[in-house]
Write a structure and sequence with these properties.
Helices cover 39% and strands 20% of the residues. It is of the alpha/beta class. The chain folds into two domains: 7-222, Spore Coat Polysaccharide Biosynthesis Protein SpsA, Chain A (Alpha-Beta Complex); 230-279, no CATH class. Helix 1 runs parallel beside helix 2 (47-57) and helix 8 (230-249) packs antiparallel against helix 9.
């Protein structure tokens, strides 16, 4: 059994050999972490060998090797189910926490009664902020007027230590196990992308605070394991947006609007793949 305030870190990997060693070294050194669970979704590179070396050196670290890729949400739920610490930190393999990052997120959550889903101030290696750390709910009406998803981004508010947002990035999410269990964990019907928007929305619907701790800065390299498969990533990103729309927005829209939004989501797909290829 673990300390009543212990934190379990859950990391989902896929072709993550570039960053997973640094990620796990930092998690093993992080204050308050009593369990680490790595769930691998069928990596064919050196990811598992690196994770095994960490597991052999640290009894807090267990890993689950899926034979294929069942999706990010499925793997997060597997990791959470395999540990029993009262606090959960979902950490991408390309996120590098500082020694006190997770304990400071925990302190924020405790200060507002524990009913909170928190993110951190994510920055890249140059210090530039990740706009996805602070997001609005998707505005599908806006999508009909402008072929862009930039309307998801919420501005950084330097006046607030704890900035309330509609959603924060799935790259780093901190919450109590009690809240995670009460809202049913991640929706496993999302394969990749939009599951974080969905989790945040259900947390808010359950009365929890969703916010970004602007005083907790964490380096996030963004999409290291996704660069080699832009078609796959964009397909599931758009599929996730479609599921989110059908779940939350479609029931209160007319037939013409529903058709138009669904058509626009898939019309965006080839352009998004092209942009991803050019970035890669």
């Amino acid at each position: 059994m673990n300390a009543p305030d212990g934190i379990a870190a859950v990391v989902v990997t896929y072709q993550s050999n570039e960053t997973i060693d640094s990620c796990l070294r930092r998690l093993r050194d992080a204050d308050g972490v009593v369990q680490i669970r790595v769930v691998d979704n069928g990596s064919a590179d050196e990811t598992l060998a690196i994770v095994q070396r960490h597991a052999a050196a640290d009894p807090r670290l267990h890993f689950i090797a899926n034979p294929d890729n069942p999706g990010f949400g499925v793997a997060c739920n597997q990791g959470a189910a395999d540990c029993d610490a009262p606090w959960l930190a979902f950490v991408n393999p390309d996120c590098f926490v500082a020694e006190d990052s997770l304990e400071r997120l925990q302190a924020h959550a405790v200060a507002i009664g524990g009913e909170a889903l928190l993110g951190a101030d994510l920055v890249d290696e140059t210090g530039e902020r990740d706009a996805a750390a602070r997001r609005h709910d998707p505005d599908f009406g806006h999508m009909l007027r402008a072929v862009s998803t930039s309307q998801l981004d919420a501005p950084y508010d330097r006046t607030r230590t704890l900035q309330r947002v509609d959603a924060t990035s799935g790259a780093l999410m901190f919450m109590s196990r009690a809240l995670f269990t009460r809202i049913g964990g991640f929706d496993e019907c999302y394969r990749l992308h939009a599951e974080d928007l969905d989790l945040c929305r259900r947390a808010r619907d359950a009365g929890a605070v969703v916010a970004v701790a602007n005083d907790v800065r964490v380096v996030h390299l963004r999409g290291v394991s996704s660069r080699s498969r832009p078609w796959f990533v964009e397909w599931h990103k758009h599929r996730g947006l479609m599921r989110y729309f059908d779940r939350y927005e479609a029931p209160r829209r007319g037939p013409l609007t529903r058709w138009a939004v669904r058509a626009l989501i898939w019309l965006r797909f080839p352009f998004a793949v092209l942009r991803a290829h050019l970035r890669a």
